[in-house]
Amino acid sequence: MTILLNPGPVVLSERVRQALLKPDLCHREQEFIDLQNKIRNNLLEVYQLPAEKWTGIVFTGSGTSAMEAMMTSLIPAHGKVLIIENGVYGERLTKIAKIYDIDHVVLHHEWGEEIDLQKLEGELQYHEELSHVAVVHHETTTGRLNNIDAIAKLCKKHNNVPILLDGVSSFAAEEIKFEDWNIAACAATANKCCHAVPGTSFVITNREAMQQMSATPARTLYLDLVTYSKNQDNNGTPFTQSIQTFYALAEALDELKDNGGWQARQKQYWNRMNIVRDGLEKLNIKPLFNKENCSCVLNAFHLPEGLSYETLHDKLKAAGFVIYAGQGGLANSLFRISCMGEISESDMERFIDEMGKIVNT
Fold first, then answer.
1. Does domain 14-258 have CATH number 2.60.40.420?
2. In the chain, N or C: fewer CB atoms in 10 Å?
3. What integer pLDDT is reported at residue 215 of this predicted model?
């Protein structure tokens, strides 16, 4: 079996894999509505969110579709969003705003940089008209876990600006303080820390924030969260959903709960990642960041001197492991390792053994 150490899709458990074989359904039948309602309820339970205040909106699409739905559905026509960039996915939020002509300002950082809180406060002070701040929680470009605690405190200080959170690579494995961070919405996907398959994504939204958008003309047809929310709250769906991927997500969420929830998953990821960090350190392969700046989900490492990513990737793939390249200009200097999915600590130890064979030849 090939062990996927890329940041999604993940190696599936047999339990989730078998869920894909459940009976075909029509999306207009009660059996599908029961499945959809179960997923929506279980998504809220991951962070113990009360259904009277929060809603999980689930639909067919990749993680980017969730980001796009969040940005286009929660920012009103008269609104203005401050987008914080320090990697590819922060910049993707900006691309979405530009495509839809959403009024925005950008606080840009180089990839991997820590968010400059002094500059952020300056932007919040200068732009009193801001309706939202959009930020990536775990920026998988580099593995940096952004300090949303500090960002949220500044947003609260300056007009209590709500946050649109890209939680695509953190939901179900990192702490997300929906209430304390004044989150209006959090976009995420099934095929990362939830351990399901690609094809289903979701947005956890504050119902009050959603209600405020109910009279606003939709920017999109397929990705309008207001439409999904109204339909799903009334036991329907506006479009045909990917039934089999819904089965997989429902089973994966049950498995997450059975295994101890996001806290247990976070601990499990760190146990695996510590094997990787310690093992690579002994091979003189350095991490990009200290542990305290990283997510448990993915860490980036400097390529060994004299070894190209292509060579490293191909040799590891031949040994049964798939790793991930650095993005853009980082492709020639970094590789990335994720520890999501149905993999074991012994798999990670074997990975380190294979790395040692490659580096020492």
1. no
2. C
3. 86
